[in-house]
Amino acid sequence: MTVFEPLERVGHSPLVRITTPVPQPHPGYFAKIEALGIGGLKARSAQSMLAGARRRGELRDGARIVESTSGTLGVGLAYVAQALGHPITLVVDSELEPAMRNLLRALGATLVIVDEPHPEGGWQQARLDALHHILAGDDAYWPNQYDNPDNAAGYHALADEIVSGLTAAGIERAEVLVCSVGTGGHSSGVGHRLRQLWPDLRIIGVDALGSRIFGQPATPRVMRGLGSSMHPGNVRYDMFDEVHWVGPNEAVHACRGLARGGFHTGGWSTGATATVAGWAAARWPGSVITIFPDGPDRYLRTIFDDDWCRRRDLLEPPHTQPHEIDDCEDPTWCWTRCESVRSPIGSVSARTEATAR
């Protein structure tokens, strides 16, 4: 029997062919099921960020790690920090599911829970404000998942696993990559690596309605785990051929459809990427690949709870095609697609200056 050290087994999730007809019938696509990898998707970036910090002398032996999380990164950081002998404090918010809070505590994390969203930056900014307050009085290390290049670098191995999996299936290359976008870590890391191999690979970003990443105004979001109320430095805007903003109705429908028709399902990020991957597989010939970032366990009282969904009108029939817009700053109110992706940071600054004048 072969015995592995904990950090040697990070990643290595299965690549599975998905044929469930969500959001419409399609010939199938390939998905990396990250919930079945040791430590989950974010253990890849956690290992890369902490190893990089230790190598540069930024993270001392036994030093405390502090980070903001909506859940998934917290699991990955707790797994890696435990293996490396670091205590960890995670700043979360009151909307984090009780089951996830219990899991993080069970993994040894200390939780700081934020009770009120920031009036403009929402829960994300409120968590970051609390994090900076902790750092001001503690000699701790903050990985800064949003701007840390080691975050993206941690996903190069995921891209290599995709290539190996396709090769084992007798497939020479993929035509389309569909990636959810939050911090920009796994989309940038996987996309950059695969573009080196396949320069004409089409890369589709999947964002959430109400997210600010690609130029929309930040509004309260039901969906957690993708999207952002800020512009993370790891997002490589020039890499994307198009972006889709997916709504919670589509994500709920996809997650439930995947569970009934293909077993492999998950939460908001998985539902959103499955929606766009199924659409892309029906639209383009050749292999479409995507990444299912999480599993269903933490969503049993939300996405998979009829009463919870009914109270939010999330059981209404979803859209099966995206609405099309010409510019990423045009209004979105449902699942929407835009093929003119650019960094919104300059235009946001210009609007702010114009308002000030």
TrEMBL record:
GO BP term (any one): alpha-amino acid metabolic process
Keyword vocabulary terms for this entry: Pyridoxal phosphate
Cofactors: pyridoxal 5'-phosphate
Pfam families, alphabetized: PALP (PF00291)
Domain Tryptophan synthase beta chain-like PALP: 10-292
The protein's name: Cysteine synthase A
Native species: Rhodococcus maanshanensis
Upper taxonomic lineage: Bacteria, Bacillati, Actinomycetota, Actinomycetes, Mycobacteriales
